[in-house]
Design goal:
heterodimer; A: alpha/beta; FAD/NAD(P)-binding domain; five-stranded parallel beta sheet; 30% strand; B: alpha/beta; 3 domains; globular
Chain lengths: 345, 598
Amino acid sequence: MASEHYVIIGNGVAANAAVDILRQGDPDSRITVISREFFPFYYRHKLRFVISEELQEDQIVVRPPAHYREQNIRLRLGQEVQRVDLKEKTLYLKHMEKVHFTRLLLCCGGWPRIPEVHYTYRHHFTIVKGLSHAREFKEKLAGVKRVLMVGGDLVSLRITETLLRMGREVLFLIDRDSFWPLTLTDEIRTEFAERLTKHGAEVLIDDEITGIEEVAGIEEGTSGYEVTTRREKRISCDLVGAFFGLVPNVEFLFSSGLDIDRGILVDDHLQSRNPDVYAAGDCAQIWNPAINNYWVSIGWENARLLGEVAARNMLGESATAGAPKESALDYEGLKINTSWWHIYD
Amino acid sequence: MTKDTGQSGAGKQASGYPFSDPSPRVSEHPRDFDYIRANIPCQWACPAHTNIPGYISANAGGHFDASYLINRASNLLPGILGRICSRPCEDACRHGDPDLGTSVAICHLKRVAAGRREEKVPPEDLVFERTGKTVGVVGAGPAGLAAAHSLKMFGHDVVVYEQFDHAGGMLWYGIPEFRLPSAVIDEEVGFIERLGVQFRYGQRLGEDFTVADLLERHDAVVVSAGCTRPYELGIPGIDLKGLYAGLDFMMRINRGDIPEVGERVIVLGAGFTAFDCARSALRCGAKDVSICILGVEELLTVTREEVLEAKRENIRIESLVRSMEILGSGAVEGVRFARNRLGGLDKRGKRKTTPIEGSEFVMSADTVITAIGQRPDHTFSASGLDREPVFDEEGRSDVEGLFITGDYLSGASTVIESIGSARKTATLVDEHLVGRTRRKAMVTIDPGEDTHRQRSWDFIEPQEMPLLPFQDRFDGHSAEVELGLTSEQNLEEANRCYLCNLKYEIHIPDCIYCRWCIDQCPRECIGLVKSVESTGGHLGTAIEWTERWDEVAGIVIDNERCIRCGICLRICPTQCIHVRLVNMVERMVIEGEVDDGQ
């Protein structure tokens, strides 16, 4: 009988990198992957092609469920962990089931960030984080002529291109303080604006939303929004896309006793205060002795590396997360270093 | 004979009880208080034990005067607390259990009751004849006001000695007007004055009078002098220009003497005062404000709404940082911090933080506000006496007639905790003066009826507090930010409350074990049992469930899981499910003893 039951919450790149290492290092163990999403592991950066219907959903899948069966890994899709009891080493799922673990890896990722200043409007915002959001976005686009994009992050820039290619009008309200994960300098903001304008988007800078009201849509029989701004502009649009980056998805852990700041606080071995609980990927807030600061990973490659480090340590090795790999936000030649992401808001 | 102080709200819910045992009961048995603790968590968590389901039920029925009075009977200042309460009730609310969604916005509903009542002056509170005894109360903060009010109700003559020129203490001087308008304080303090409590302003203990003086003038003295001694930061640079103590900063603003602040402000501290200072600094003209906390946001004791509002006003919260030095030559130029690591629990049960070696960094600032708390100055209570009095945990002293209460007794706490503390102290003072207990907490068990609660109400989204538009907030300090729930929002939010003061029971002799209630129950709280035993413990009973028919001894509703949806009551073909209304109330014991129902 297997002695270890590794449970991994999340099914993104960090989780899957960890799964490979765990299965390789402990072939007889039980491994369970629990994901809130109903869809198997997929390339998130390809969601925009699903929105534009250039790719079908199954074309963005990284690993089909069969892969997990072959590896003797229990994949639980569409199941939400509601509470973690560390004393009992038990997860409480939303559908009233308990799952016990011996070692837990949290790869629960990020969730779309809505800055507090925009919190009142959150019900009017359309977001794109996972496949279900992309489906919703695609569905909404059917009756949409004009889209207002607010905030700014790499995803929003790519989706703007996609929308313009699809023949939609795009108005982009760049929020200097809420651009993720950076606070934009005037120079960089101007550069972004120039590139977006070149693609055909209308760009608004030095302005912010002061009100959103649901009204009749531009097309007859549809609904839309009337957005007012600090500079007293009135913007009519059919959809408001909010792109303010991500925050670690950790709310369900608040009562667990784990140390949570912005993310799950872990040391450079990705171990939490509880020796049997590790965190990797976008949800982990990692102490890095090299820079004497906490940091949170950003991007696919960092998440993969962190997943591997966490898994090695769960197997008893002593791997360190080290410095994250250098990465840069590259938008048509405009490169900004995003390797050291410390500040979220 | 006892007199209901108006807390039960029973008249709003109880009528037409059709079942076999309709007799109301009043109990002082510990088992029944244990039932309240386990089953009405909001009321138990409230330091003043406000009958929350009672007043929410009245709100839902549009009975705002009754709702206000149910509140006032326990917490005295519903209009004030409806704005600034720390809301321990909401943390305990069953609707906030992990699988049940979000707590009811109990505090906002309190404000609705205060704002929408028609009877602008509450009816006379006096219950007892005048005793001829007099009590001096030192300090007109929340504790002093609550003690004075209760003692006046007991029939004593009360004089409150206040060092400033307004009653309210920290309510008036410590909380910014954009959170608590002064008119609201004046109105509710006015009700206490109207009752006949005398206020003597500009009277400072130790300067204008001593405790010994008061003990000569009065039959009893209650010192509720609050917490006035700020904790010291104990780091270099605290004498630099541009550094303020948080409480002084707020007091200056509330007196109209607006302090000068620079563009960049750092607030050191994690409590309500820190947040009030940060938000006030913006209204003083600061452009960039950060609140720097030792621990993490999740462990903050301020309400989540306060954190959200501060962030909405573009205030940053820097977590896991410890100030090491205030930097500057002559005036503040910045703060040197070290990053912190969370550790285990300290003696008070709070998380320890440890600075990490080599992690120091500097944040620039023009103004630094330290809001790390205050403690009581216990030299006050000895003034004029020939020895230091010794106090017990409840505030009694070894000096005849001398009591302390509120923050002065417990250390810094919240307004509702101060009120709860002072009401208990007032009962002790009254016992001392008349020689018997004249106010008691009791559990009333009355017949109840179906509330016609709809299952869909369990899924109503929490109602969001309407807010003053961002652009209208910063012209001065007095524009109230939270505007109060609308009538429609009040009804929606009130309907979210499960009304945990209802107790659903199955009368087993009438049950035909059809299992309809079990099958329909949305929370799996009804079941067949092998045994139900009284444990004597604080939860009272231990239920042994079974699915084997040959073991079944009965069928019960686990009220600790029950969400009072009423489906079982409506579906039962034999009407064997009964409802009782269980309330914890305070009763004035006017004469004789109260039957405890045993």
